[in-house]
Amino acid sequence: MQQPFMAYENDTDGFTIGELQIKNGMEIITIEGTLEITKDRQGLEAALKLKRAVDAAIDALKRDRNLPDSIRD
Questions:
Q1: Where are the alpha helices (DSSP H) in 1-73?
Q2: Which residues pair with 21 in a beta bridge?
């Protein structure tokens, strides 16, 4: 069983779905590459992995009571 993606918790976690790379960071999560979501069981699994990563990021952002308007100038 794969460990859950802990969004914004460290600068080391990351994983790949197809050709899509998801890299964790303390302030930025980077998603790069291409992901084909085919209409089959493999496509469903790929879509669910992507959804779990995005859901983890959204949940972490919602929990942050000191969320700035922007971290970039």
A1: 41-63
A2: 16, 32
- Cβ–Cβ < 8 Å for 59, 31: no
Question: Where are the strands (E) in 3-71, listed by range?
Answer: 14-17, 19-23, 30-34
Phi, psi of 30 (to 5 degrees): -105, 130
Per-residue pLDDT 10s for the chain (73 aa) are 467 899 999 999 999 999 999 999 999 999 999 999 999 999 999 999 999 999 999 999 999 999 999 998 6
The answer to whether the pTM exceeds 0.70 is yes
Answer whether 27's CB lies under 8 Å from 33's CB.
no
